[in-house]
Design brief:
Helix content is about 30%, strand content about 25%. By secondary structure, it is α+β, with helices and mostly antiparallel strands. It has a domain of about 240 residues: 3-Layer(bba) Sandwich (FAD/NAD(P)-binding domain). Helix 1 packs across helix 10 and helix 2 packs across helix 10. It is built from 11 helices and 23 strands. The protein binds flavin-adenine dinucleotide. Flavin-adenine dinucleotide binds next to helix 1, strand 20 and helix 10.
Amino acid sequence: MNKYDVGIIGGGILGTTISYWLSTVSNLKTCVIEKENSVAQHASGRNTGVIHSPFYLDPQKKKTIAKAAMISHDLWKEFSIPRNIPWSECGTLEVALDESQHKTLEKYLKWGEQNGIPEGALKLMDSSAVSKKEPNIQCVSGIYCNQDVSTDYGMMTGELYSYSKNHNVTFLFDHKMTGIKNTNDSMELQFSNNPSIECKFVINCAGGHSLEIAKMLGLANDYSSLHFRGEYWIAEKKYENLVNTNVYSVAKFTNFPFLDPHWIKRANGTAEIGPNAVPVATPETYSGYVGNISDVVSKLGEILSGGSKKLLVNPEFLSLISKEWKSSLSKNAMIDRVKQFIPKVNPDFFVKRGTSGIRTPIISKKGEFVSEILELEGDNSFHILNYNSPGATGAPAYSALIVKKLQEKGFLNLQKTRESFWNFDKVIEQITL
Ligand SMILES: Cc1cc2nc3c(=O)[nH]c(=O)nc-3n(C[C@H](O)[C@H](O)[C@H](O)COP(=O)(O)OP(=O)(O)OC[C@H]3O[C@@H](n4cnc5c(N)ncnc54)[C@H](O)[C@@H]3O)c2cc1C
């Protein structure tokens, strides 16, 4: 049986970034276990591609991911520009459509400051200032962040993979882990079509499957998850400059922010609208349409299990399903939502689908969506669940933090072994401040 010191389950941006850090600050024999034939085949290669500045993240409730996003902006910049990874500083405008949403933007301005966004990078604008900047936008007010970037996280993960591989990390592609056993001082990992391996320590970064893997070890039994497919539509070339920045609207339902579609400027200059949120059965259900609202409700009933059935009796969730959700499901309905702030958009401008991606929020025993990243510790294992947006943005700083935490807990032995393009100690100093 092949033996490793550390086995990382999942070759998305999180698992790959952790493997990179480990390869520079330890001599541990590390492998990344990935069921697909290359990295970033799921959420990490199928997202909106925005490097988010955390003005919209509550500095108390979402402290870790807000800090990680803030620190990682510059790390990604240093990494991407010399390597010709797309880096388009197109900025993000978040718009308010009524007075109460304007109040949210005022709060965002404060959160932005508290999260460390530099003065001058974030500006609250009234409706006429917004129209001057973007004549095709209609709103009550908007907050503009000029340091948001459009990029390609799939390319970033691919590049990090090359470094990790050159630093002797083994990538076990086409290895779907189907079982995991704790055998006193190590873990035995089993696969559907490959021999088992043994790892002294396992880090679970399996994205939409991380909950299921944690449960294999008797952890996270109080949690369940849902999978939502986010679909995008690409604007025809002649309409792609209708607006020249990313445009988000203040979430109508703060607990369900993934329901409001955006206007996105991709790093290659194209424009898309999306994503919506279609409930699906697995983290890989990229096709198949849940047609109408009663199908959606019955699909949710099927998907929800155990404690999360409570979600269906949560009044906000029920109101959402009955009134709002249907308006995010179809292309026309999604475009109607964007029309509220870009009145010129029309379904005919969007004839081609973009690449869809699947989010997997974790639901607590009380039937509520968990707001922060969920970290769970087992014997010889550590599990990262609910690693949702802006997870791709925050990956370099957050993964350094995980490596440091595992050292402090006595699970990993660290010592600097290689020069790195990112400074581990500096990142740790910033994120633990
Ligand atoms: C629609 C959408 C839009 C988003 N937009 C943004 C954005 O603009 N900016 C941003 O910062 N973030 C965004 N995000 C969030 C971001 O993409 C995720 O936080 C991030 O990609 C998660 O990375 P990951 O490595 O944890 O998961 P993943 O990329 O899903 O990787 C997990 C990997 O584990 C593998 N795996 C799972 N189970 C097994 C198993 N049993 N055996 C072997 N391998 C297994 C999978 O194949 C997969 O490759 C978005 C996400 C979505 C879905």
